[in-house]
Write a structure and sequence with these properties.
Elements lengths: L2 H10 L4 H7 L4 H8 L6 H11 L3 H5 L16 H11 L3 H13 L13
Helix pairs in contact: 2-3, 6-7
Length: 116
């Protein structure tokens, strides 16, 4: 396991070790060990890949392309966060990510909510 990749993804998605541990049904100690390059079991590895929408090969350091099967899904980081939240059943997290997308500046111009 490439612990640096796991740590980077966890921080990119804004998860604590405790939150990630709950998502994949392991102890926080397991997350800490994996981030120190210990190898998770197969089932946990697959769950981690699903949480972050990356391939298991990427987490293992076998490839540098994080997209599953080498496909470029062209999702932005925010879109990936929405998808990941929905896969976890976290509707509130998905809504927050969607709001972040809608409120993000586009081409240097901030969007203004249309209130009618």
């Amino acid at each position: 396991m490439r612990g640096d990749r796991l740590r980077q993804l966890r921080e990119q998605f804004g998860y604590t070790q405790t939150q990630l541990a709950k998502m994949v049904n392991v102890s926080m100690r397991s997350i800490r060990n994996w981030e120190a390059n210990a190898a998770p079991g197969g089932e946990s590895l697959v769950e981690l890949a699903q949480v972050f929408s990356v391939s298991t090969d990427y987490l293992l350091g076998l490839v540098d392309d994080p997209t599953p099967n080498g496909h470029n899904n062209a999702l932005s980081d925010h879109e990936s966060m929405v998808l990941s939240a929905l896969r976890r059943g976290d509707q509130i997290g998905a809504i927050k990510a969607i709001v972040d997308i809608e409120m993000a500046p586009q081409d240097g111009v901030e969007k203004v909510a249309n209130i009618s």
